[in-house]
Amino acid sequence: VHFTPDAPQVFRLSSGFPVYYQRQGTTPLAVLALVIPRGSATDPRGKAGLTALSVDLLDEGAGELDALELSGELQRLATDYVAEVGVDGSLLVMNLLAQNFEPSARILADIVRRPRLDQDDFSRRKALRIAAAVAGESDPIHARDVTVRAALFGAGYGGHPADGTRPTIESIQHRDVVTHLSGLLAADNGAFVVVGGVDREAVRGALERAFGDWRGDARMRDAPVLDAPSASEIAMVDFPGAPQSVIALVQRAGGVHAAEYFPALVFNRAFGEAFGSRLNLNLRESKGYSYGARSSFVRWGKAGYFGSFASVETAVTALSVEVMRDELRQLCTERPIDEEERDQAVQGLLLGLPGRFERSADTAAQLIDLPLFSRPPDWYTLWPERVREVDAPEVNAVAQSYCEHPFTVVVAGDRGAIQPSLARLGLRVIAYDARGRRLGRPRAAK
Amino acid sequence: MKLAAPLLGLVAIAAATRAEANLPRESTPGWKVPPVSVPVEQYVLENGLSVVLSEDHRVPLVALEVRYRVGAADERSGRSGFAHLFEHLMFQGSQHFAGEYFEAFEPIGAVVNAMTGQDYTTYFERVPSNYLERALFMESDRMFNLLPALSSRKLDNQRSVVRNERRQRYENVPYGEAGLRLTELLYPAGHPYHEPVVGSHDDLSAATLEDVKAFFAHHYVPDNAVLVLAGDFEPASAKTLVERYFAQPSGRNSRTATVTTIPRLEGVTYVTLRDRIDLPRIHLAWHTPALFGEEDAELDLWSTILAGDKTGRLHRDLVYDARVAAAVQAQQVSQRLSSFFVIEATAAAGRSLAELEHALFASLDKALATAPTPDEMQRARNEYEKSFFSRIESVILRASMLATYRQFVGTADYARGDLERYRRASPTSVHAAARRWLPLARYVRIDVVKEPASASHVGSSKEQPR
Predict the structure, then answer these.
(1) What is the pTM of this model?
(2) Pick from B107, B279, B323: which is nearest to A344 by CB?
(3) What ipTM does the predicted assembly reach?
(4) Between A426 and B34, the higher pLDDT residue
(5) B residues 53..72 contacting A (CB < 8 A)
(6) CB contact burial A356-372 (16+ within 10 A = b; e otherwise)
């Protein structure tokens, strides 16, 4: 099977606004996505979560419809609407029926161009977001992820989750949202992505009528990328009584445009992405410490990180950190990625490509990255060749850059049970509670 | 509810039937259902294996699902979690492929997984279409030749993995214990659904290699399985391959059909769990009719009318107006023997369990008093009709849907019938089903309230807590 994704057609509305269009599928489903390349990196200092709360408020009444009327109208059209905010962008996505493309696009235009932003709706959505943040404090995986971001990126770019935290959301006022959206919601550098069983000219006509005169410049600036941590340490989040420890070993990496991008895809698949990768075979299939262990690169526009992740039984926390650290160390010493691993990883990536374009929603999810990260329309057409070109020395060059210190180790687990053994790993241990507050001396071990 | 009906009364691959499961073309208020068809061909091998084929050449992918009609409901006493533990062992190699099952698939970019429920255990792969034969060989080898490759070491290793899965999915997750306790409280001891699928640590620790061998011999036989291919393949060559790898003589499934009535709750069963959470949560659950049974679809629609979006009756009252809840969800959990309907409401920050409870029951009282409006019905139906298209767009979901039809209805050619259930439902029938099956005097209630995790406490009461 040779599968090369088609490049999407790119056309422009009369305003010059680009539309990435791909016809696909035999079902009546389609996706309409508005990509605004401004995300949580634009949150002002101390107000993490402002972009997410602002974008969340857009469908709480727009145009002639209040929040309930708008929701009901979308249900009548069988259109699902979801808004998502990442570090670099805000996505407003509609999964819809092709025949209802035009009325759905009209509603999207109201959401973007005529949101009501009522004080009362703001208070309600803010309260729900605070509740979600409070709920997150009970979840070790959420706590681990928040801690990873803070440890690697501090108060700079990428340093907080898009949703913010309890205190930062509490600090957000209605006027902050109104001001933020006035700078965020502009046509400037945005794009539509449309995929599915809908005609190109129907798309053009509907978007022209709804958005043809939409213009404007954004007035937003991303937070700066701060320096990476220079020393290895363990950040521990205390969850007393937890039966497992949620572990991450992380290091800073480049963003989506990093030169190592393709070799790193191959490296990661061999090291920790696949079920049969080194990390999972060791921690799960050999030792039985975990239900699963994985590694991944998280890449945003301007920075990213590489991490190894696992949830392990509390009693083997320190042992598991050692195993994970040792797997990385071996990459630089006795066990570099060999030719067979490289070949299997490349083949797996290439043959897995069709699955990333199976459904309209799958394809749309891929195409969104093109305008979001200023990638060319033929990015996925050329992708197989770029993967195929990666050789074992390139893979091991990537491995070399992640096999040694400085690591940041984040562990969310029962401090009393695990701190003594973690302290023996020779790294400085800093403990926090689930709300991110620094803790004092440890309790006695159980 | 009986097991799936006998399979067409046919034997041998020659007795193939072909059907087009056309979706209805008539219009409904709101939108017209486009003419999309799901091609279905189904037949039975001499050894009893049901085979379902559904071609789709959009993308060079084919999904293969092998569905065994055995799940947690078939476990014997003292062996809870065994069906799921066994599922893990199916990935540990077979006689003609000694390695990890994934090893054969990851170099070809495949998606591979399995799932165990109360009623079935299902294994699936999505592979590039030119690797169909590899997938068929791998599934057949573990269907016919698993035991020679098994060992105590593999059992012990996967026992550890599964116990960690239990910790990761339930014990180390906020509110997770409620998921373990719900079936135990809904279904009396001895009922097939009494134990949670993941099982207890004690029972998992007790499982032996002899248990594994007996379970395999009893349940993992062709006439207790459905094989579905969906996606990009040529039927003639696919049938040849299916025969080559699966037309092998084998033992027969000897289990007898389990026939149970829907259990009846007497009053309120009330349990409080303490967890390391800040926002109290209330779960309410009722027994309801089985999957594809009378009023199953009505209760699906009712769940959407209660909490499908912002306009859902409970959502509007609790989250939008009173702001006493941060979230509310409702679901009809459909199963073979009997289903249950569950409502889950989480308090907003700063709101108490008592406030949530008061508002929740008031809202439920009000919701049950009024039949759905035609507009509510149309919007709820839209969701189900559209979800059908989402399922057939994915070869994995399509294979799963057809396996479910074959297992529970007796024919994979049931797409139209499935949709018709939702189309037939009326405001009156939905309202009647809700009133019949969700009485406010008989239900199971689990509250989860704040407590340090190390001090878990469970209390039980038959008292009406309202």
Answers:
(1) 0.91
(2) B107
(3) 0.92
(4) A426
(5) 58-61
(6) bbbbbbbbbbbbbbbbb
